[in-house]
Write a structure and sequence with these properties.
Layout lengths: L15 H13 L8 E11 L76 E3 L6 E3 L16 H12 L2 E7 H4 L1 E8 L2 H6 L4 E6 L2 E3 L4 H7 L3 E3 L18 H5 L2 H7 L7 E6 L10 E2 L3 E2 L7 E2 L19 H10 L15 E6 L6 E3 H14 L3 E4 L14 E3 L3 H19 L3 E5 L16 E3 L8 E6 L18 E4 L17 E5 L3 E5 L2 H19 L1 E2 L5 E2 L2 H10 L20 H6 L19
Helix pairs in contact: 8-11, 9-10, 11-12
């Protein structure tokens, strides 16, 4: 699997200690590192969180950067032992005022690594006579940087990758201690796993997440709708009469209070968005799809299509985007938050294939941009190419690597102020009681900090296909609940109608459709209650957004939180008015799964 690289970060100058460590490393390499080459493969390398790749992954925990030289009981970090392998961790090179690091450049009494001058902010390693002299300005506390931007361990990690025969195609070490690497070395993963700095190495795999546009039409899963054939009985946009989903969560009433702010940016991590679609245009303001900030991470695959974020060669991403923010412009449909800005982040291709590495890059990119909310109507997979399994299991090394990397990406974007919302999946599984056991989760929907969304049909019934489960379901939202064999003639009255590339509209269903409804309401919450973020946008802490979304939901099913409906059905009007009074809809059907 050959995949073109996208790595462009510069290397910072390594410290003297790093050079010594690498010299010793060459002698200690596993024999497998020189194994024969084969076609290039892509890997996700997760570095140990106890090592400083940046301020998020601190150096500590009792281990040296080289496995052979552990900072344990025998080689303590203190007055008697040097930090890095260059100095053999012996008595002769102590980190104290009277000892030199290499016999030439001494750490004098002014900048001694002792009780007086600890490794804290103000006594950092900045550039100087020895490359990294002790001076003010570059702290080992807070950022852990051994240079202007990058930590020493990052340089060390890059050297390990290169020595093992890898080429970094995406360096996510600053954000979350992960690198995407291509290598022709058949023993690359084995070699990297032998280093103390490496937590996991997982092969990158693609999987078929969505049907292609043609497949969806041929199967009847997607039905196109001509607005000219629909009686306009509700709203100004011709297809609003079909939008039972918007009436269910009272978006029209909410828009009278708050229709969304252009200062709120919503990332759609999917197949791209048709940025030229008429339903995203409004006279005088243009499109609310921000193509300039969009990004395409689909480097290769069986159905790449046009590698541009604002071109959707599939249909899924455009359908999701319309649910979130189709404009109230007299054309087609109206989204939950029609005035917010959409940022297309393409991670899946025209055939509906997704690569785990692309998904990781896309999520991380949303954090780099500090978007307000992102929608993730997919799950990160790890099975054989073009096969699909929902669960990531901690007792499987390959799956654990994907799971760890994804969970780190989620934590990173939350730290950047991004609220992540995700679909729970379409297998009608009780995620709290699976045959796979408690070690297995749907990722990212069950990842910590993500708003997991289950799907409802037109009567607020649980959709027959929707996953559910205590601890997994945070909220429910309209996703559709049609039956192709039973009610084809009325299928569009039970599915979710939204935008399709090429100035078309169509009906589709799934938790993929439920999640963007929750995303749209989250965007309304940020628009209504967010504060200026200093860069022209609005911001609201992800925990606050999620709390407001759940606290303003309408209780359905068993009263209180329950396994099928979580905290209840989202409600846009209650969300923008922050109405947290108890509300229960007794007309909503109970969940059949209660008896399972």
């Amino acid at each position: 699997m050959t995949r073109p690289g996208r790595y462009s970060s510069r290397w910072s100058t390594p410290a003297l200690a790093l050079l010594g460590a690498l010299a010793l490393l060459a002698a200690a390499l596993p024999a497998s590192v020189i194994a024969g080459e084969e076609s290039s493969e892509r890997y996700i390398v997760v570095f140990d969180g106890e090592y400083a790749l940046d301020g998020s992954y601190a150096l500590g925990g009792g281990y040296a950067l080289v496995q052979k030289y552990a900072l344990g009981d025998d080689y303590a970090l203190g007055d008697d032992y040097a930090l890095y392998a260059l100095y053999a961790l012996e008595d002769g090179y102590a980190l104290a005022s009277e000892y030199a690091l290499d016999g030439t450049y001494a750490l004098d009494e002014t900048y001694a690594l002792s009780e007086t001058y600890a490794l804290q902010q103000g006594y950092a390693l900045a550039t100087g006579a020895v490359g990294y002299a002790l001076d003010e300005g570059y702290a080992l506390a807070d950022t852990y940087a051994l240079g202007d931007n990058y930590a020493l361990a990052r340089d060390y990690a890059l050297q390990l990758v290169a020595t093992a025969g890898g080429t970094v195609t995406a360096d996510l070490s600053r954000q979350m201690g992960v690198m995407i690497v291509d290598s022709k070395n058949a023993a690359f993963a084995e070699t990297m796993r032998s280093y103390a700095l490496v937590a996991e190495v997982a092969n990158d795999f693609g999987w078929k997440q969505f049907p292609s546009y043609q497949e969806a039409l041929a199967s009847g899963e997607l039905i196109l709708v001509d607005p000219r054939t629909v009686n306009t009985t509700l709203g100004a946009d011709p297809l609003e009469s079909l939008q039972w989903n918007m009436r269910q969560i009272r978006t029209a009433q909410a828009r009278a209070v708050q229709a969304g702010s252009p200062r709120v940016q919503v990332g759609v991590v999917d197949t791209g968005i048709d940025g030229a679609h008429l339903d995203f245009l409004l006279a005088g303001t243009g499109s609310n799809v921000d193509c300039a900030r969009g990004a395409d991470f689909t480097a290769v695959g069986p159905g790449i299509g046009t590698p541009v974020a604002c071109v959707d060669n599939n249909f899924h991403g455009t359908h999701v985007a319309g649910i979130i923010a189709a404009r109230a412009n007299g054309v087609g449909v109206v989204g939950v938050a029609p005035n917010v800005s959409l940022v297309p982040i393409k991670v899946c291709d025209a055939d509906g294939h997704c690569y785990a590495s692309d998904v990781l890059e896309g999520i991380t990119y949303a954090g780099d941009l500090a978007l307000d909310v992102i929608n993730m109507s997919f799950f990160v997979d790890d099975d054989d190419f073009q096969a699909s399994t929902e669960f990531k299991c901690a007792n499987d090394a390959t799956q654990r690597g994907f799971r760890q990397a994804t969970e780190r990406a989620i934590q990173y974007i939350r730290n950047q102020g991004v609220t992540p919302v995700a679909a729970l999946g379409n297998s009608d599984r009780d995620l709290a009681h699976t045959a796979e056991g408690n070690n297995c989760d749907v990722v990212p929907a069950e990842s910590s900090g993500v708003v997991g969304t289950a799907a409802l049909g037109p009567q607020s019934e649980k959709a027959g296909y929707s996953n559910w489960g205590t601890g997994a379901t945070d909220v429910t939202a309209p996703g559709g609940n049609g039956n192709l064999q039973r009610d084809t003639a009325e299928y569009c009255t039970r599915q979710v109608v939204s935008t399709i590339p090429g100035n078309l509209w169509g009906c589709f269903q799934g938790t993929s459709m439920a999640s963007p409804h929750a995303t749209g309401v989250a965007a309304l919450i940020v628009s209504q209650f967010g504060s200026a973020d200093g860069s022209g946008g609005l911001g609201l802490a992800p925990g606050t957004v999620a709390s407001k979304l759940q606290a303003t939901s309408i209780d359905i099913g068993i009263k209180g939180y329950d396994e099928c409906f979580g905290n209840g059905r989202i409600d846009a009007l209650r969300a923008v008015t922050h109405d947290t009074s108890r509300a229960y809809d007794g007309a909503a059907p109970f969940c059949p799964e209660y008896t399972e």
